[in-house]
Design brief:
With about 1000 residues, the chain is an alpha/beta fold. The structure holds flavin-adenine dinucleotide (FAD) and iron/sulfur cluster (2 copies).
Length: about 1000
Amino acid sequence: MTNHVTELTTQQQQELSDIFGTRVNFKKRERHYYTHDVGTLPPLAKPLLGKTEPAAIVKIGSEAEAVKLIEFANKHKIPVVPRAGASSGYGGIIPTKGGIIADITPLNKIIELDKDNMTATVGAGIIWEQLENKLNRQGLSVRAIPSSAPASTVGGWLAQGGAGYGSYEYGWAHETMGSARVVLPNGEVKEFSGADLDNIIATMGTTGIITQVTLKLRQHEEMAAISAQFPDATSMKNAIQAVGKNNIPIWSVSFLNPAWADMKNRAPAKTHHGHPVDEHRPILPVSYICNFLYPGSRNETVSSALTGVIKSAGGSLLSQDIADHETDEWFRSMKVKRLGPSFIPAEVVIPLANLDKVFSEIGTKISLPVLTEGMVVKGDSVILLCFIPHSELSFKFNLAFGLALSIVKIAENNGGRIYSSGLYFAKKADKVFGDRLGLIQDFKKKYDKNDIMNPETLTGKGTFKTAISLAMAFEPLARIVGNLSGVQKMSVFKDKKDIPADIVGHAYECAQCGYCVSECDQYYGRGWESQSPRGKWFFIKEYLAGRDKLDQKQVNTFLACTTCEMCVQKCQLDLPIEPAWMKLRNVMVEERKQMTFPPFEMMAASLLKERNIWATYRTERDMWLPDDLRAKIKDKADYAYFAGCTASLVEKDIAIGTARMLDDAGVEFTYLGKDEACCAIPMLVSGKWDVFEKTMRMNISNMKKRDVKTVITSCPACWLIWHTIYPDWAKKLGIDYNIEAKHYSEILAERLDVLKPKMKVPLNAVVTWHDSCHMGRAGGIYEPPRDLIKAIPGVEFRELEHNREHSHCCGSVLSLIADPPVANVIGAVKLNEAVDVGAQKLLALCPCCQVQLRISAQKSNINIDVQDLGATVARSLGYDIPDTTNDALVAWAVFDKMIVLMQPEGMADLMVELLPEMMAAMPAPLKLMMKTVKYVPGMDILMKPVMPHMMPLLMPLLMPKVMPAMLEAVTRHVPMPDYMNEQMPDMMPKVMENLMPNMLPLIAPMITPKMIEYIKMH
Ligand SMILES: Cc1cc2nc3c(=O)[nH]c(=O)nc-3n(C[C@H](O)[C@H](O)[C@H](O)COP(=O)(O)OP(=O)(O)OC[C@H]3O[C@@H](n4cnc5c(N)ncnc54)[C@H](O)[C@@H]3O)c2cc1C
Ligand code: SF4
Ligand code: SF4
């Protein structure tokens, strides 16, 4: 039998590291993120589960690794808990006996597509929505799909069991799967198919690690949708039964009760950078709403027959608008949780024949609102997912939770059962598994002698199981209490522990569904839950509850978000995730005085001194401008070209190309030249909002002096700033802002009639396009750049797999600054997509994306030419535009070295190098005291804890004296261009002044032993 394993020995850690390399994590803090699933347990019941922290997390990269893990676990009798999308709520991913979390999600490839037999063999960790999108491109489709498709995996659905869209036609999840490869608990690998699959279905990772699944497919077809409303559950039931009786070939039948429809209408509107999005959201009638989906080719057979049964059952058709909208929202069922913040869930399977009785009994026995969603499964079973809105912050939440048991009881009274037994309802396993229970138990005895595979998940946890059984026995009593335990004003939150009220609220609203995880580049660049939006919301709740700290490590986690807004796009609750992290950046850096990423301090110093972030002289800013164009620049004009720092100083091809295109298209413009300052987005994302505001004021005022009405940008970040951020800040600060912003592609796409005939030099290349996050998801500008590309002669244009609003981030700037190796991982994802479509050139228009992609291509050795769109168009217009790939690599190499130097380890090394100067600069009495280390035994031991406290007091005193030596040392470590070197004496003291208060506590423990050693030797 396995023990409860919360820590591994050093030897065990080494063994796991030997297998998984960097794909294993032992950090205590990270492990805490893997202690829960989507369910929110009542605080009184939670302690009954005991300590649920794993001892390690591993990311399974292959079947062979899964085998090695199992061998390791058997050797040491350590539990293994498979975890995939983590979208389930039955406790299957909760490590109640500690052990190792085996993250299956790296097994995410399509292994074989057999179009003749209409099957796909896939890695068990592939996410449903991503698989379906890939299949659709091949004209294929899965047969059924869970409504958690953006987060859940194929293996997870087989292991958890269930039904989803398509189950009306194709049955339960496992009925749409042909076979599965499994690493058994004894390390053997076995292929299961047919009746043998019974050993795997819904066993929640207790019978092995599923590594591959073969799915049955269907031809892909657009679905047609019909929605109907019914006055009561009986008429809805009658209609659904009539569909079956009349063999109307429907693919999926799902429904909502009136309470759910009402909540859906009231859910808050989506916002974009704080402004309500003008979404089209039809109002649902507050009644029973049933949605029927079927392949469009069946329209003739289905449409009139279905309409007939709906009408004869007393229902009426809803508008096509509603039907289409409900279909669009098919994976967004939990949107209503925005009105929560918490839900008490109950999920049951009942016979269709008793649907109305169950609704009626719930209505009479439970006085709190019960939001209910239903999915009909082939063979007349119905899955009811019930949510009682509540607040986990109220004590009454504990009491109201009992109502979930009442719903289970009502289902049982009507021939139904709980949906899944899992950790919490282990006593009901016989009802869920029926005859299969004995088979599974025998299988476990035979193959899992050490009980390593997800122990307690099927058998339950002692005290918790007893508590549920007791509560079940006293259900009528618990119901009375539960019915009295409603709460009002659930969504009112206050600022807490420096976290603004709206963010506190969102942390509790977050459903932990995981839609935002897999495509968050901060997450997939690193691979650990703490880095995902879901993890960050979890952190905030833990921090508010006093179980975690908002220390520098966590500050860095928030700062490392690249602001790509993929999470905002993905979140089914429309939570303003990225804007929340943006707000927190400032709270942490300016209000709490925590440290931003050190390179931002260098940028800030450079910006304040020379108006740019590259530590170049301000006088250099307009040197990119060709003389013939300089002569044409207006002093004042309606349009101004705002080039930004990187295009002006590093990738000058962007600025030159843009100016050439505008000029050739007949756009007259002015330009701020040496007066131009950085748009200041680096200051916004670094939390240094005071510098942002100062710079913004300068830029706005300079534009006004030139009577500018429209700012044209080439950089998407500059566009976002001028278009969205400056106006909001101007409004907040009472600044008159009458400026509109356009990207050059918007202006030029409208002038292609003038520009295209001038594009004469062919490119003769296969070209693909990178949609930058700030112009794409943040700005919605997708087509104008494509129009420009397609106008270039000799272009064969191919879209990337993830394009437009699905485009993946390049990884700049924050990954590049926080963690350059991670930036390369993220960049390689994008570059490999370009290689996969056979592109020779990856065009982009963002200077930062281009720096990042060029570096990633170099570091990952990916052979693709990254070029600027504007420069490419200008070349086709006949201009000789320089290729700046090398300039970007050279400029970044300096920053790269500076980043390494400015990390705590780098700064500690630098300080150690400066020990002679530091000692020399010490006041005499202190020097004397230090020397005692050399002569008085035991003094060194005493000094060790004292130094970290002394250093912050000493440093301001020492720094001015040590500065000349420090500047020399920095130059030794970072070979800088002259202009940068010359400015260091001005910039460095300011940078150090800002960094040291937070940096010293981090580096003092690293310096102290070396300092003591130094004193002893001198
Ligand atoms: C918004 C939302 C909608 C949902 N809709 C549906 C729905 O329509 N139908 C439905 O059935 N469920 C639904 N669910 C529940 C959940 O999404 C499903 O149970 C899903 O199949 C779980 O997959 P996962 O990849 O997230 O697995 P996880 O939650 O990670 O794991 C689930 C269980 O399977 C085990 N497991 C996972 N992968 C493996 C593997 N490779 N080998 C062995 N064991 C493994 C785990 O140990 C765990 O016990 C929904 C959940 C949410 C949040
Ligand atoms: S904005 Fe992008 S990087 Fe940041 S949390 Fe969202 S998805 Fe992740
Ligand atoms: S942030 Fe949104 S998508 Fe992410 S887990 Fe929470 S509710 Fe789900």
